[in-house]
UniProtKB/TrEMBL annotation:
Keywords: ATP-binding, Chaperone, Cytoplasm, Nucleotide-binding, Stress response. This is Chaperone protein HtpG. GO terms for molecular function: ATP binding; ATP hydrolysis activity; ATP-dependent protein folding chaperone; unfolded protein binding. It comes from the Bacteria.
Length: 604
């Protein structure tokens, strides 16, 4: 064994003065990242020695490859120890003293013809080691190479000066010793280090020991063959990620190696009528190292509703690995995930329509959100999105078109799809429409105003109208004129009477409607009401939401109750009929609508 001793001083080769303040303040804004970077480097070194052994280029015993993290509060040091391939003194000069020369990249280049890919090594920038100076006033490296060379010790105080000497280390591997600076002594607390390791290293591929126990699971299920996994395995893993969440509805196991590498599991949580975008997040990993849960550049916005894990070495990261850069690979991954999700939903729809319908109250928001925000997803989802009728039955877009085209086309041969945003409050209008042989859709969710707008853009000659937006004869205008039994003078007199009873804030119009319509129909302008609904969930400028809603009172000139008001000029009855209209819109509290109608009819 070579026992040569040496002692050398020198300057770190950099092109920028004061590189360490830049690293500390700008390159890594979150100081806890230092532990992720140093442990990742230890993982790299360990994977390299395993690779060399598998290639027959290292014939020694690998031994226990566990990486150990320890803290000495009294000495104010943190030590990260690995039993990887180590470094010679010359390699320290090359890889440590020349900032931004990536040893990982050189290793990949050397062995690329033997199956080692760039993505197989975590460290790609050569700067991770220097994150140590975010928390340390002095950093030591004590290392011994797997090659027959003397151990070496490197020390630097954060300036550009370093010292390298021989060391007494006899075992292969590297110890990184951080002498923690006074302003970073929070990292000497065991709970603090444990929290960081739990966050970033929970699924590292090499065992990591801290405080006497291994903190990571080296083979998470996303790295395994789906054929070797059970539903229980997936559910158990979900509980590990989200311990306080309900069980997911179903999941997708992602596994692709061309034209990019990506593995992962995406879970479909139960989603009710609210956008739960930030309740839980998809976690992004690179070779089992946690990177971030801000994945908006990798995952389409509507897929942020999903939970789970994505792991890819092909997602480009900046040197701190904290932010994603949108490039061609990211776009390809984005498109792939969208396609896989759509394919899974289509498979469920085709294979088990009944089960799919049972889940639709939970996943409908997600699907509609996707259709609104992503045209490629829309093109696939239009075949498996479902519309729910007021009678609780589900239809595809094509099925509903077939159901309504014989009865709900207007005089211009355009389809009109009636809908309700609150089946309870708008029941009187729904029942009137059903009596006419029309159907009414339930579109009561937060995303539905946007979904309606998207459908009107995409579906040919089809419009959506809320069932209480106007009289039925005007909602679905078939060009048939309903004659009025009242003269113009009688209409004018009735209008004045109802205007006096209704008061300010209502526009009164006397129209000849079918006798099966309500005596007084309360309507809202469709455009303003729709804009108001959208503004409540942030889809339109705020001023729409702040504008007062205006209501129209349509007096049905052909209804027996209105004729009674005309004959008697009974303002009390007129007030009752207006209250009936308000109650039908949920704008008046009181008895049930059914009881109110009975009482009002009895008065006529």
């Amino acid at each position: 064994m070579d026992t040569t001793t040496f002692h050398e001083k020198g300057n770190i080769s950099i092109h920028t003065e004061n590189i360490f303040p830049i690293i500390k303040k700008f390159l890594y804004s979150d100081h806890e990242i230092f532990l992720r970077e140093l442990v990742s480097n230890a993982v790299d070194a360990t994977q390299k020695i395993k690779r060399l052994a598998s290639l027959g280029e290292y014939g020694g015993e690998l031994g226990d490859l566990t990486i150990k993290v320890s803290v000495d509060k009294e000495a104010k040091t943190i030590t990260i120890s690995d039993k990887g391939l180590g470094m010679t003194a010359d390699e320290i000069k090359k890889y440590i003293n020349q900032i931004a020369f990536s040893g990982a990249l050189e290793f990949v280049e050397k062995y690329k013809d033997q199956g080692v890919e760039r993505g197989a090594i975590i460290g790609q920038f050569g700067l991770g080691f220097y994150s140590a100076f975010m928390v340390a006033s002095q950093v030591e490296i004590v290392t011994k190479s797997y090659q027959d060379a003397p151990a070496a010790r490197w020390i630097c105080d954060g300036s550009t000066e370093f010292e390298i000497t021989s060391a007494d280390k006899t075992e292969r591997g590297t110890d990184i010793i951080l002498h923690v600076a006074p302003d970073s002594e929070e990292f000497l607390e065991q709970y603090r280090l444990n929290t960081i390791l739990e966050k970033y290293g929970k699924f590292l591929p090499i065992p990591v020991e801290f405080d006497g126990k291994v903190i990571n699971e080296t083979e998470p299920i996303w790295t395994k063959n789906p054929n070797d996994l059970t539903d229980e395995d997936y559910l158990k893993f979900y509980e590990t990620l989200y311990p306080f969440s309900e069980k997911p509805l179903f999941w997708i196991h992602l596994n692709v190696d061309y034209p990019f590498n990506l593995t992962g599991i995406l879970y479909f949580p139960k989603i009710k009528n609210e956008l739960q975008l930030s309740r839980e997040k998809i976690q992004l990993y690179s070779r089992q190292v946690f990177i971030t849960d801000e994945v908006k550049d990798v995952v389409p916005d509507f897929l942020m509703l999903l939970h789970g894990v994505i792991d890819s070495p092909d997602i480009p990261l900046n040197v701190s690995r904290s932010f994603l850069q949108a490039d061609a690979n990211v776009k390809k991954i984005n498109g792939y995930i969208t396609r896989k999700v759509a394919d899974k939903l289509n498979e469920l729809f085709k294979n088990d329509r009944t089960g799919y319908e049972e889940k639709f109250s939970d996943i409908g928001l997600f699907i509609k959100y996707g259709m609104v925000s992503d045209d490629k997803f829309y093109d696939k989802a239009k075949d498996f999105v479902l519309l729910q009728s007021a009678d609780e039955k589900y239809y595809t877009l094509e099925e509903y078109k077939t159901k309504t085209e014989a009865t709900q086309k207007d005089k211009d041969d355009s389809l009109v799809w009636l809908y309700t945003t609150d089946a309870g409050k708008q029941d009187a209008y729904i029942q009137t429409a059903l009596t006419r042989g029309y159907d009414v859709l339930k579109l009561e969710g937060a995303i539905d105003p946007h979904f309606i707008g998207k459908m009107e853009q995409k579906l040919e000659k089809t419009s959506f109208k809320r069932v209480d937006a106007d009289s039925l004869d005007r909602l679905i205008d078939k060009g048939v004129t309903v004659e009025s039994v009242l003269s113009e003078d009688e209409k004018t007199s009735l209008k004045s009477l109802f205007e006096g009873v209704a008061g300010a804030g209502y526009s009164v119009d006397v129209q000849p409607l079918s006798s099966d319509e309500l005596p007084v129909v309360l309507t809202q302008n469709e455009f303003m009401r729709r804009m108001n609904d959208m503004s409540k969930m942030g889809g339109q400028p705020a001023f729409f939401g702040s504008m007062p809603m205006t209501y129209n009172l349509i007096i049905n000139a052909n209804h027996p109750a209105i004729l009674r008001v005309k004959d008697s000029a009974d303002s009390n009855l007129a007030k009752q009929l207006i209250d009936l209209a308000l109650l039908s819109q949920g704008l008046l509290s009181g008895p049930s609508l059914t009881e109110f109608i009975k009482r009002t009819v009895a008065t006529v």
